[in-house]
Amino acid sequence: MKNILILGAGKSSLVLIKYLSNLSENFNFKIKVAALDVSYFLNNPLNNVLPIVLNINNMNQLNKNIIDSYLVVSMLPSSMHFKIAKTCSNIGKNLITASYLTPEIKKLNAEFLRKNTFLLMEMGLDPGIDHMSAMKIIDKLESNYDIKSFESYTGGLLTPNSKSYNPWNYKFTWNSKNVVLAGSQGATYLENNKEVKLSYDEIFNKINLIEIPELGFFEGYANRDSIKYIDIYNFKKIKTIFRGTLRNRGFCSAWDLFIKLGLTDDKIFVQKPYNMTYNNFLKSKVLTKDKGEIKELLSSKFNIKKNSLEMRCLDWLELFSDKLIRIKRGTYADVLENILCKKWKMKKNETDRVIMLHRFKYFKNKKLKNLMSYFYMDGKNQTETAMAHSVGLPIGIFIKLFLMNKVNLKGIHLPIKKEIYNPILNELNSLGINFKEINY
């Protein structure tokens, strides 16, 4: 019996593991779930699923489990993927992840080829379903028409019925540290043939207002480097390309205030945070030497009104209070994440929503046409979330295709080939991730 090794048992893993468990008898494999905390799977046993306590830094233990596996899936944080990819390339094991392909990992391509194995990356929601759904349209349009503009947005949000009073209209539905550090690398995109570069300080105050049928209006902010997708998607005459993240209206201006205050800094450590109050943390970086009431200082320094949405967002997080932080050590980003986790943790009666939107402009018979493609999906509960479905299912479906010998990959790949995206999108459609297209 073959072993499929799943590294990581976090929020996005459960749906994938259940999907594979349902396939395991027919395809004769076991699923080893390896993480520091596998208590969920010990308490909720699944068919042919074996939980293993594994410290990723224990190389002997990691190597042994990889050697014993037919296929490895890493659901670990992105910072760990080079280590996993390097190990798999050395040993000669196939690997799948949902994270971005980095230049460092890309250099391992020759070794994967030499070992006659593959590494498939960017196989989740975003990146992942965004690639596959976009490429299906691009391949269809590029053969007949000139695509001039492409925009793509994805958001992990709350369902509207989950919004008890919460001026942010947001809670954590995936990795909290990634949310806190979003945009910290800056962003680049192409607009009317002009390259636009945004610094971290600019990203959240330069937003696009996006209307999505059935759902209403959202804010879209630029996500990383959009220009590299000109080559990845093989655009020939593109003039505008923009990849962004969706948030509910009002979020970005409030988050921008955190950035201006320096509270998302992940390099500088907070001095003695354990006995620091929320109030003092809020003013610790840029308002330290100023005397006076914190709301007055914020109002005058950043030109925001005391009853503004930004102030209400800070107040809802209790940042004007004398509540104690109570963590012994951490950067400003660590402390902020700790504070947010207490308020942005989803309640039992709350569910999440994933939204994805593509917008194309292209010429047909010398006339400019517009095409919109979108989907949204609501989670079932706190464990089987929309985020877990949309991250885990593409990986699971690909594994099924691989076991059926319907795909043959060697080296490093993204899911942009028809033999990958067509069958995966077809099955996703049957599982509730179905795109609607509108021409206008």
Please describe what this structure looks like.
The protein is of the alpha/beta class and 440 residues long. Among the domains are: 2-121, Rossmann fold; 264-343, no CATH class. Helix content is 35%, strand content 24%. It has 17 helices and 16 strands. It has helices spanning 14-27, 39-43, 59-67, 81-91, 103-106, 109-114, 129-142, 176-180, 200-203, 229-232, 251-261, 278-283, 294-302, 309-316, 332-343, 386-403, 418-430, and strands spanning 2-7, 29-35, 49-53, 71-74, 94-97, 118-120, 146-158, 187-191, 194-198, 208-212, 216-222, 240-247, 352-364, 367-378, 411-413, 436-439. Strands 3-2-1-4-5-6-15 form a 7-stranded parallel beta sheet, with helices on both faces. The protein has a 7-stranded mixed beta sheet with strand order 10-11-12-7-13-14-16, with helices on one face. Helix 7 (129-142) packs across helix 17 (418-430), helix 11 crosses helix 14 (309-316) and helix 16 (386-403) crosses helix 17 (418-430). The longest helix is centred in the last third of the chain and has 18 residues, at 386-403. The protein is globular and about 70 Å long. The model has no long low-confidence stretch (mean pLDDT 92).
